[in-house]
Amino acid sequence: QVQLVESGGGSVQAGGSLRLSCAASEAASDSDCMAWFRKAPGKERGLVAYRTRGGLTTYTDSVEGRFAISKENTKNILYLEMSSLKPEDSGMYYCAAGRTLFSSGTWRCDPASWGQGTQVTVSS
Questions:
Q1: Nearest Cα to Cα of residue 34 among 8, 21, 53
Q2: Which H or E run includes 5?
Q3: Which residues face 99 on adjacent strands?
Q4: Is the Cβ–Cβ distance between 8 and 21 less than 8 Å?
Q5: Cα separation, 17 vs 59, whole angstroms
Q6: 22-75 pLDDT, tens per residue?
């Protein structure tokens, strides 16, 4: 069973940085991909970034160039380095593990397991 535990959220001013961590159980190593999703108030949960087991990364347009997803394989920890933060980056950030799917002409990470989330609040 895949277990995911996020940490690193907090409150920061616009322009600041945060690093989120997701400690994954060993079972997560069998996942095709791991990802970060964000749920903002009044909005649906949406993809922020994902990383395939082979190391390929994909970002949603709004964070491209500001966020970086990486994984420390020896410790099975997924990271999300966030810089130049904006108020619209605020929300609950969830770590996920799942399989890659080709749908509607694009690859995506389809989550099978979720963490409990960590809150990020960016003030203007």
A1: 53
A2: strand 4-7
A3: 110
A4: yes
A5: 17
A6: 999 998 888 999 999 999 989 999 999 999 999 999 999 999 999 999 999 888
